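This part of the workshop introduces the protein records we will be handling. A record pairs a protein's sequence with a compact description of its fold. As an example, a complete record with its sequence and its structure tokens follows.

_____
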Amino acid sequence: MPLAAKASARRRKSPTPAGRGRRRRWSGDEEEDVFSGSIVVDHGNTSGFGTVEDPALVAIYTSAFKEGSVHQGTQAQSLAFSTDAGMTWSKYAGNPVLGRGSAHFRDPKVFRYEGPAGSCWVMVAVEAQHQQVVLYRSANLKDWEYLSTFGPANATGGEWECPDLFPLPVDGDPDNVKWVLVVNINPGAVAGGSGGQYFVGDFDGVQFTADSDSLVPADADGTTDLRHCLWLDWGRDYYAAVSFSNAPENRRIMIGWMNNWDYANTLPTSPWRSGMSLAREVELATVDGSPRLVQRPVLPLDCGEPTRTIQDVELHHSLLQLPDAAPGSAQLIEAEILPGTARTVAFRLLGASGGSAATVLSFDAVTSRITLDRRNSGNTAFHDKFASAESAPVKLDDGVLRLRVIVDQCSVEVFAQDGRVVLSDLVFPLSAHLGTEVHVEGGTATVRKLAVTALS
């Protein structure tokens, strides 16, 4: 069962130039730093590291070779294995197993591919500064054969990192399967700095081919309108997202690093920086005639009873006070709202009652855009790029705005229209600012359903 593995991001990094050298690290030695990769369970013992009865865990990671190494100045892919369920690890004596003589060849995601010609291991990695995804295959995880290259395409304003490739049925139909290629980019994302784009297409075991409606042609001056690319998240803080294979019931679960390299080194937290996002289940659904990712947060099976529920309440140029978030806990807000004649419907999150400081999630009925605004969310002064407002286009369903919002102690993750649009941002609210209010301006809106639930 291949499992995506994320190197720990909970370490402070030294500032470095944008897009260079700033990688998530595991442990290293005098020869190499260890950068991001993935882990598989080697069922069948193709590598020989374990046995068929007791298969080894095999980590495929990037070796960033240091000065003095025979491979100095390059990045290549290496193996480590564990035969005690991940408690201890040994590096393979034959490392590196795959190199290109490149200084920016990294982030291998490996999965088991079953096709008409048989099964094999497939690796997707990146030539980061060439904005390319490179694909390889292997029978034993040690010997790799080049397959193909994808890219550059769509957002190419920064380094490509942490690719992922996986199949999903469209609308749950097992006879209609498409492949999703995720490519994270830094800088150059739609909200600025780091972010994750994706492509929908087909994979035949050798080549990934993106659907034409996943590709955005460049303008006459060679630039690409980032608003037309496909994004995992329209916020500022969802990066390096990678999925798990073979989850129970064939669910595809994805998790990302909740941060942005624009200000990652200066976040006001200590002794660690950077948590992970909520885990998200991703599916392909037909949206405006094309298959697109939808994402739903993976929450506890029993979230408890809502602390407040509201149904069929009209708001006219007014506000509605919701229960404060409990200190040390998260809050789930689920809402169905008919904007009606209102110009804006806004949620003021993590604020003080009657005060000006808050994170504001708003829908503008004129522009049909949803915005997550943290410019007055609390502590924003630690970096000049942190105070920001991110927005995304939202198409209402029969005039209904559907929201699922998870408000944690220093993060807001918004899933709109059943997960077709997602925005995620870090926030650092002022002490004791835990209030939530709904504001309606410019007319009358109807709160059809609203529930607030505490998540401990």
Q: What stands out?
A: The chain is about 0% helix and 50% strand. The CA atoms of residues 249 and 281 lie 12 Å apart.
